[in-house]
Amino acid sequence: MITSNLPTIISFTSEADSATWRLDIAANLNYFNGHFPEQPVLPGVTQLDWAIKLGCAHFGYNVNVATLEVLKFQQLMLPNTQVDLIVSHSAAKQKLTFAYSDGEKRFASGRIALNTTNSPVAVGS
Questions:
Q1: What is the pTM (predicted TM-score) of this model?
Q2: Largest CA distance in the chain
Q3: Is 84 within 8 Å of 34 (Cβ atoms)?
Q4: Concatenated DSSP letters of 97-122
Q5: Is the pLDDT of residue 123 over 60?
Q6: How many CB atoms lie within 10 A of CB 3?
Q7: Of 54, 64, 62, 58, nearest in space to 84 by CA
Q8: Nearest to 74 by CA among 42, 109, 48
Q9: Which residues does 63 contact at the CB level (< 8 Å), separation at least 6?
Q10: What is the pLDDT of residues 33-58, one digit of tens each?
Q11: 68, containing H or E segment
């Protein structure tokens, strides 16, 4: 797991098996440094890290990823944008599904399979 700080969270909503964070992708995030000089782009590994951290924390999992599935990076995430990160939870399969979007514009999506020995931790206990 990489060590990254989360971006500013503008808002948060949740339902039984999904959560949505509105994120501010500020131009001063150090993830843009050198990636790339001509046109700064938020690295895919950073997007993945944020989805794992926020999803695992919200649904009560320790961060223990088994595999990543169907990762897609459809559009570049540029500085000074706001995006929604939606993470859905499948307890039976121990998987988190994530998608970054802004309205109809999709940036990235995929599934995070957690280790099967990694049971959800009771949130708020």
A1: 0.87
A2: 48
A3: no
A4: EEEEEETTEEEEEEEEEEPTT-PPPP
A5: no
A6: 5
A7: 54
A8: 109
A9: 1, 52, 53, 56
A10: 887 878 999 999 999 999 999 999 99
A11: strand 65-73
Q: What is the mean pLDDT of the chain?
A: 89
- What amino acid is encoded at 92 in this protein? A
Q: How far apart are CA 90 and CA 15, in angstroms?
A: 13
Report helix, strand or coil for 8: strand
Find the length of the chain. 125
For 8-43, give one letter per residue: b (16+ CB within 10 A) or e: eeeeeeeeeebbbbebebeeebebbeeeeeeebebb
> Contact, 21 vs 85, CB < 8 A?
yes
**Gap between the Cα atoms of 47 and 45, Å rounded:** 5
Do residues 99 and 111 touch, judged by C-beta distance below 8 A? no
Q: Mean pLDDT over residues 55-72, rounded?
A: 93
The neighbouring-strand residues paired with 67 are 113
